[in-house]
## 1
Amino acid sequence: MSGLVVIGASYAGIEAALSAREAGYAEPVTVVADEAWLPYQRPPLSKDFLLDLVSEQNLILRDGAFFESRRIDLVLGQRVIAIDRQARRVELAGGSRLSFDKLVIATGSHARRLSVAGAELDGVCTLRSVADAIDLKARLGDASEIVVIGGGFIGLEVASSAARLGKKVTVIEAAPRLLERAISAVVSKFLLDAHRAAGVDVRLGETVASMIGNAGGIAGVSLSGGARLRADLVVVGVGGIAADELADAAGLRCSNGIVVDELGRTEAGDIYAVGDCTNHFNRFAGSWIRLESVQNAQDQGRAAGLAIAGHREPYDSVPRFWSDQYDIKLQITGLSARHDHIAIRGSVEQGRFSVFHYKGGKLIAVDGVNRPGDQMAARRLIAMGVSPSPQQAEDPCFDLKSLLRAAQRADA
């Protein structure tokens, strides 16, 4: 039995399988995952799950009956160890093999590890899977002093959750500001102030020299500047690495992820790759890029699934990200790294504002704090290439949607 085989059961893999089936792909569809869990949501793992606001069961995306009704076979708790392109089959760790006509690689990313002494001590954790989250949640209950290494999305979300649980939290960030590569300096400062107001000790421009252990595991962290911090739990959140080992071993082109086109195709025509493990040319970045976001995973998965079913709808979505910390809902549309000018809409002091990023007068990204309406408009503005002037963006009375309506009339 051949058909479509999908390696990986997170957002990208599941979206590819469902989109192919819903678009008319009639052959067998099999999704193989190394986790024994039904496909689940990952964003709540660092937030509501740690706070006990969401149960393990509530994380599940769809139950088994849903996949049965779509004739999608889930093979859970089984790890693919090799892809044989010539024989058109994948080999599982237990020795069994699955043949394929079409293959989707949706293996995601691995948590980046620290290469310092003591990094393997018990109590030094990362957060990528539900198993990681269950372990971290249990450890948080017993911990009192927590060090979070990395001021990115996961690190700050874990810090926020731990602080809300009443823990003493220190965040170590090597860069001069939080989320330096993802958001504006204005939003970075706003988040820094929010964490410090919640009692979190945020140390910028610091790196870890080593982990300090005792007979029971982690006891502290030594910083490069000479300071030592007590810690009975350390959470490392310093980014992810594309899980492209299977593809690389199979001879597929990899460069900071599996290289794919706008349909998710690799250089081997019937093998696709989607989600965090891929590198694609993105017109909004103006370059090749690897994105780790739910939006990218779902939209890229959909493009691949449709292509497998014979429908060409290239992936061309505006990148989007979000993060919840305390009562802050941070939403990001577009990629701001190349900006040369910003405009602020709303009130930073009141905690409801958006930062509009421009490059050569063109709107390329909008960071929003508790202003979802701006984000809805930004998605369409950036996708259509329509730019409010900085003065219009700063004017709270200016209707951003009027530009969209004018552009639609012009195209009619």
## 2
Amino acid sequence: MGCCDNATTTHAASGQDVHDQVRKRYARIAETGTLSSVSTSQGCCCGTLPAEELARKIGYSADEIRALPEGANMGLSCGNPTAIANLRPGQVVLDLGSGGGFDVFLAGPKVGPQGRVIGVDMTPEMIGKARRNIAGYRRSTGLDNVEFRLGEIEHLPVADASVDVVISNCVINLSPDKPQVWREIARVLKPGGRVAVSDMALLRPLPPEVLSMIEALVGCIAGAVLVDEYRAMVRAAGLVQVELRPKPEYVAALSGFNDPLYSGIARSLPTGTSMADFVTSLDVTAAKE
């Protein structure tokens, strides 16, 4: 039985409840190491396509995947923010919702020994997993330029105007207060700092039956907003040069794999429609004046 076959739990009533639901499921993923090992009772995240296969389909190279510490790639990505971030040596990079450190460990060599990459995640089990992975990263790269901090992305444990580039991968859509996340991004960025985010967004509103599935929320779907609403949030935070580029490859990959999460939700969609009609992965870039 697929992850969403019994998806009847309704949306949590408060932001804290949403955080608790998401944290519980991501803790289970951190403990087991993969999405496919998370049972129906624990819910799902961004699908169960094998982690390496998904990473290749959304743009990560085989060399990048091989260079990662063991267990850093848990198949939680919906894009490749490091590919659009144009990272340079010496920069300070912040990864929102860093999980096991997947994008942090890829960004580290790009910023080099004079740079710094900070991962923030609200799940203690993910932070513990990422910190354990640092030793393997140091052995393979010779670098000591990454760290992981426990915290919520609505209240980042990072100083004002201290970051050159903010990245994030399939996380902001999970927040119950997305405008606050974007205000925090603007706060921590240095003047002239940039954003390179991969996230989920809606092309059209989802049916109420899908919105009622907590598995859909944790699966990076029901928490997503319309593309135009997403653009407005980024601009309202005071960021400029805002560009949103739909990336259909992610949803296509999961649909083609008959992923249980997406298959379950697809059964709740109107006849004649598919996931690709409603949901897209999105590359978001912006800057701080």
## 3
Amino acid sequence: MKKPSINRMPQVALLLETSTEYGRGLLRGIVRYSRLHGPWSLSVAPGHLEQTLPKAKSWSGTGIIARIHSPEMANLIRATGLPFVASSLDEFRSPRPGDKFGEIRTNSAAIARMAAAHLVERSLRHYAFCGFVGCAWSSGREEAFSRYLTDKGFHCQTHRIELANWMRWPHWIENWEGEQPILVDWLKSLPKPIGLMACNDNCGREVLQACAAAGLRVPDDVAVVGVDNDELMCELSSPPLSSVALNLEKAGYESARLLDNLMSGHLDGQNVVQVEPLYVITRQSSDAIVQDAPCVTSALRFIKNHAGQGIGVPNVVEQAGVSRRTLERRFFEALGRSVGSEITQCRVERAKRLLLETDLPSHRVAAGAGFGSVKTFNRAFRRATGIPPKLFRHNGKG
């Protein structure tokens, strides 16, 4: 009797940095896919972006997932003839027709809109963007950020850091010594207070250092938000850096699924994986509330700190120290929404984080976010997001 054939275990090279949250997030999703649908033999080298293919003679690759940092790296991957899934393909030559490839794209437009909305909610009147020269994803975020603000009737000033080798840490440090004084002068020239989006957390940390060198107060003079939510780096910043969190684990999982299809020849036509934003993690760097009316400022801070505790409009009115009619009028003049709407919005944002960061059942998410019942929670969440909480959790976790 003929023995059934046993397929060889896929050997997949992961050319992704372990030094950043972007790389680590993708790796977590890839590992989860391998565990559920593999097993795969995974090869990864701890380090930054300058990754290379495995050199061990025992490695007989069947696929590659990579973050491309140079044309040389792109050519090296293509020369293997292996199926691959890679990010940053748009920075180099278009893939050749014969390539078995997939692409990881970061939804820069959605990320920038989320960062802009976060700063606009602070009732700021001036805005700026800081990014990198010659970097496609940075340019995409800059364009979308400026467009969002223009549509809202605001103007955005921009600055691009000239760091040709920003992906390579020694070169970053060398070039930064010359770039920081230029950034300091630009920051000093901006109208204050101002809301600033940095293209990623690395850029955001440099902005914070430049603010300190310029003697500018964060967030009172400059409110800053970055991208990637590299938690350790954000918390080590001074002050801690707010950041747009990305759904990297889901993108990593879907990248592995795409590579699996490429390796098996079962690609269904979809060869792009999107990295979507989740929400803004608010830390001290953007924790600013700029209002001419002290009662509105007091009300906003009280809502932010206590929305999860079942407060109502009367509690906010008592804290603001004015009549309900006066508070509602000034609140709407400043923000274009009611006090009750602000409470609900804060609760929905808290619920989003609980849904994605925990496995709590619906009734505990509702209670933790400050909703009085699951029914009220479901109704408010669907009205704010367009989808029920269960679907939001499913879409976010993959």
## 4
Amino acid sequence: MDTVSWENAAARLKKGEVGVVPTDTIYGLLGSALKPGTVERIYDLRRRERDKPLIVLIAGWEDFDRLQIEIPDRTHHLLSKVWPGPVSVIVATPAPALEYLHRRTNSIAFRMPAKVNLRELLRSAGPMVAPSANLAGEPPAFTPEEAYEHFGDQVFYVDEGELNNPASALVDARVEPMRILRPAPGFRL
């Protein structure tokens, strides 16, 4: 198993590689959201349906600018209260240039994680697509060893032992009022 440090992971992700990395919930299969070829590789690795968008992790508000996405004031106001943290929000992203991310749904779910090492990685390497580290339809991997059973030596790994945190809350910010699609402990609008 190709196990690397956080710093090495950031450098490799920035170059377009794919890795299994701890998030603030469970292990994710991370790759650059700025590189369409990397995004497609993650679909292949996970055997995921091509019409389902992947979540994108961001380090800060400036990543929306990097992706040329405008966030409405009401959404920004809500997110400034709950980010960084385990809250994913679906926003409208109709830009044709982002079709490789939104998969013709014209929307993408974003999360600004609270995990310090992960935010530093995102600041260095840019926004990342980050589905759970498992094959589509399989249970999520809670350890790098479980993820290795799915992906073997096709990816690298950052090992922080077992992770089994609750899933992030999921909020649909495309509607007014915003709607919680997946609740999480202690979260409310």
